[in-house]
Amino acid sequence: MSKIKKIKFPHPSFPGKWKETIKKITERKREKAQANMQSDEMMSLSEKLKLHRDKVHLRTVLLAAAAVLLVGGAFVYSRVRVLHRYSVLSSVERSDDAATSYVRLDNRTLKCNPNGVTCVNDSNEVQWNVTFTLQNPIVDVCGSTVAVGDQRGQDVYVFNKEGQIGHFEVEYTLTKVRVAAQGVVAAVLEDGDITYVNVYDSSGTLLVKSKTTMNENGYPLDIDISSDGQKLAVSYLTMDNKDVKTNIVFYNFSAVGQSAADYQVNSVEYEAAVVPAMHFLSGSYAVAFRDDGLTFFGGRQVPEQRAEITVEQEIISIFHSDDYVGIITANEDETHKNKYKMQIYRADGSRCGTGYFDMDYTDVVKTTVLLQEGEIILYGTHDIEIYSTGGRKKASVEYEKQISGMIKLGGFHKYQVLTPDSTDKIRLK
Predict the structure, then answer these.
(1) Are 424 and 417 in contact (CB under 8 A)?
(2) What is the pTM of this model?
(3) Angstrom distances, CA of residue 226 to CA of 3, 138, 206, 336
């Protein structure tokens, strides 16, 4: 048997003297690496800094993009979800009675009843207290200023968030009171068949006095004063051959109105409509709530009609803030099976949104949140529903206690719920 001779094959990639070839390549790589190291060492400081900045910039861009995606996703989720649960953050037993009204004043809450006014912060700590005796207190708020009048009495008190800034007595029986942000007060007074629409400063100094009867200008159904105290709007109810008419009159007490008769700068008459409510809005806008719709006015000095909305259904409720107004009617839209229809408008009269719901409510509260986030709060005996100004439902909650009122607090989804026995601070979730 013949021996098998071992044959040494050269490396397939390196024929011939492959060991020498490998050695040469290795030395060449080593020389190249050394050259690169020397090149790196020779790199200028500015070049190294630029390279570092580029790396940092790229990392920052990637992190920012991730953050945008995360925040955007969270924002979209918060915009579409409906909150159904809540947690009670605190609960305080009520020491006041059912006649107490609660109003929001910046980041504080005013509690007003026939015995006085108490101001508390969001921790329910008393900031100040003023005692008085009123038979039927009525309250109006503008910005950080509050007026409290004794309806069918003669006393008027003016407050800001720091405490009382004025008190005076009117000459005749008080029926309505409105306040401007700087403390100017407009009031409707009655003396038998004669009514007065008067304007006072916070100390009670009479600035404007307007006397009227049913046979003259008519009876003032409602009034409002602009936040700067310069303009007054009055809705007068008149009779013409047994036909009811309404005349909306705008007054300007600045230099613009000095040349006009009785400061009157504009008036609009409605022959077949009643206007039970008037309100000045933010900027130079005002709105008249008619029994058959809405009329929007605009004009910094002379309010003029800008938009008119007619509603065929009976208006059940109205609500407003500085920036939005809305009405609630029965729903006759066949595409929605809900019982009620809510229509929301901006201050200039443009449509903002429409919402539909079934809850039988006892009150409608329109509130403006920090960062201009508007909410519409509806509450019944045990039910809470919250809508955006676009008409989207944001929350639907069944509350364990009987609800007598609600206030939007500062903070994320925080509210104050008033019950007959307690004041509860809650967070919706």
Answers:
(1) yes
(2) 0.79
(3) 119, 19, 17, 38
